[in-house]
Amino acid sequence: MTTHSDTAAALPARSAPPAARYLDIQQVGQTFKTAKGPFTALQDINLQIAQGEFVALIGHSGCGKSTLLNLIAGLTTPTNGVLLCANREIKGPGPERAVVFQNHSLLPWMSCHDNVYLAVERVFGATESRAQLRERTQAALALVGLSHAAGKRPGEISGGMKQRVGIARALSMEPQVLLMDEPFGALDALTRARLQDELLEIVLRTRSTVVMVTHDVDEAVLLADKIVMLTNGPAATIGEVLHVPLARPRQRVALADDPVYLRCRKAVLDFLYTRQAHVEKAA
Ligand SMILES: Nc1ncnc2c1ncn2[C@@H]1O[C@H](COP(=O)(O)OP(=O)(O)OP(=O)(O)O)[C@@H](O)[C@H]1O
Questions:
Q1: What is the Cα–Cα distance from 188 to 193, expressed in whole angstroms?
Q2: How many CB atoms lie within 10 A of CB 124?
Q3: What CATH code would you report for 2-96+175-275?
Q4: Which of 36, 43, 57, 65, when mutated, tests ligand 1's pocket best, judged by the most ligand atoms within 8 Å of its CB?
Q5: Whose CA is nearest to atom 12 of ligand 1?
Q6: Tens digit of pLDDT for each residue in 58-114?
């Protein structure tokens, strides 16, 4: 693994020294049992993510990005190695790690308010009154600009709004870690850009640690502190980690011709399309 090591001083400013190994992924491998025999999706994954860091996972389709995210979420367990969150082994899902999926997975018969309330109740229901839970729910919806749609059901709102409800639901749990699997993948370009900007603002305010799977090079450079590039599978591993030394807050229009932005973008494109050019293997 090579690292583009920009100076620490050039890294984005965030307050208070965060835990440098908040998420610690050590020698992780994942082998699936399949009808054709064992299939090794991931191998020798070593990655440390600091508290408050925004990490983008990028790589060609099928390389193992979701597999890695699911391991961090605790939805699956690794065949090799260990994953730690705040020095504790990840052994299953936990309220400190919330997941936002591409298909927002809202319950269609419940209002946006109730979809969020359900998550709030699960995390805080034992210790807080209903009024407090409702307050948390309303605050989360306000955070993503959806107070006006609280009473609507998922079928009555747009795809972008549904995705914002999914993000509100995840944020309402006050997770230490926000795990996002191509959260904007299904959206049109304009909605996607708006949600990216909103996410930048929210993350700046909440100081959450974020791991986001994406296929989009511009999204990765715009949002991330660190871009983790996976090699092609099978047995995918981390090919390169690129630090993105762009100060925050970040403005997409100003970045369009920023030399640092362009250099980072080129480095990722180079990795994906030159060094890891996707070759379809014969079945
Ligand atoms: N439960 C499973 N059983 C067998 N193979 C699996 C399983 N889950 C994933 N795989 C395989 O592991 C590899 C990595 O899959 P994964 O979904 O993590 O890739 P990805 O990088 O997220 O892909 P995409 O970008 O297309 O979403 C693929 O070859 C996939 O077919």
A1: 9
A2: 17
A3: 3.40.50.300
A4: 65
A5: 41
A6: 999 999 999 999 999 999 999 999 999 999 999 999 888 999 887 768 999 999 999
* Dist. CA 265 → ligand 1 center (Å): 25
C-alpha 42 – ligand 1 centre gap (Å): 10
Domain segments of the chain as ranges: 2-96+175-275
CB 44 within 8 A of CB 78: no
Residue-wise pLDDT tens digits, 176-216: 899 999 988 878 888 888 888 888 888 887 788 999 999 99
pTM (two decimals): 0.87
Provide ipTM, 2 decimals. Answer: 0.98
| Ligand 1, CB cutoff 6 Å, lining residues | 32, 34, 39, 41, 59, 61-67, 233
Q: Please identify, by atom number, the ligand 1 atom nearest to the C-alpha of residue 230.
A: 21
Cα distance between residue 176 and residue 274, in whole Å? 36
